[in-house]
Structures are given as structure tokens and as C-alpha cells.
């Protein structure tokens, strides 16, 4: 016989961030290009079979694209589509637009991005600028924060 006080009926322990923390931890990048590409490709795609392999290929091929200026140098070569095996010009344009927002906001590194999201005054302006990019929804904004190592609780 079991009752509500039985050990078997108690919920399993989860840490304060919730049960999906391991998933969120695995989706962090110390590479600006990876954050931008991951956030851009994730919409309506399978993460493990479509997004992650392309982001890993980007990091492996363009390790110096870990800064916005390094990523920009590579974007200017026009080879992103080949590096990530992605033919859709819409998503590639979105990558360009997000990189432009980071440039305009003075975000060079992932630490800069975390700092901007951590500063309430800068966070508002950054989120507004990113929201102006086509297909960047509030969910995508929260996802970019998560990818940079900021846990928003919204993703």
C-alpha cells in the first residue's frame, strides 16, 4: 500500500533551474559565430540532426570567428553557405543582420554579449535591436541569451 508520504510518491529532485538544465548547458557557445548561426538555424529545425552539426562545422572551420570582427571577416568572403551547408538565402541574411546588430551594439565577444544582457539598460536596447531583425521572436531573444550563458527561464 502506498500513500502520499511514501518515498516512491515524492517528486524527483531537480536543481533550482529546473529539469532541462542539462539541455540548456549543452547549448552554450564561447564563439560569437556559433551563437548567431545556432540562433538563426534553430527555427523549425531538429537541433541534433540539423543545427548542431552545422554549428560544429562552423566552429571547426572558422575558429577565429569567435569574435564579431572575426566572424564578419569570414562572412565577407561569402562562403558561409558552404561552411554550414545551408542554401537558404533568408537564413543567411538573418545571420548577417544579427552580426550587424552585434557590431552596432559594440559586442565583440561572448563575454561582451553576456555583459550586455546582464546590464538592464543595455539589455533593453540590444533586445529591441535584435527584435527588429526578421524572424527574431521573443523566444529567439531568450534563446540567444541562453546560448551566451545567460539563463532567462524563458526558453
Give your account of this protein's structure.
This protein has 155 residues and is an all-alpha fold. The protein has a single domain (27-147), classed as Endonuclease III, domain 1. Helix content is 58%, strand content 0%. It has 9 helices and no strands. The longest helix has 16 residues, at 89-104. It starts with 20 loop residues before the first helix and ends in an 8-residue tail after the last helix. Residues 1-25 have low confidence and may be disordered.
Quick structural gist:
With 155 residues, the protein is mainly α.
- Kindly name the structural category: mainly alpha
Counting H and I runs of at least 4 residues, what is the number of helices? 9
Q: How many strands?
A: 0
Order of helices and strands: HHHHHHHHH
Into which percent range does the helicity of residues fall?
Answer: 55-70%
Q: Which of globular, elongated, flat, extended, rod-shaped describes the shape?
A: globular
- CATH fold name: Endonuclease III, domain 1
Radius of gyration: 18 Å
- Structurally, the number of domains stands at 1
Largest β sheet strand count, sense and barrel closure: none
Give the amount of beta strand, in percent.
Answer: under 5%
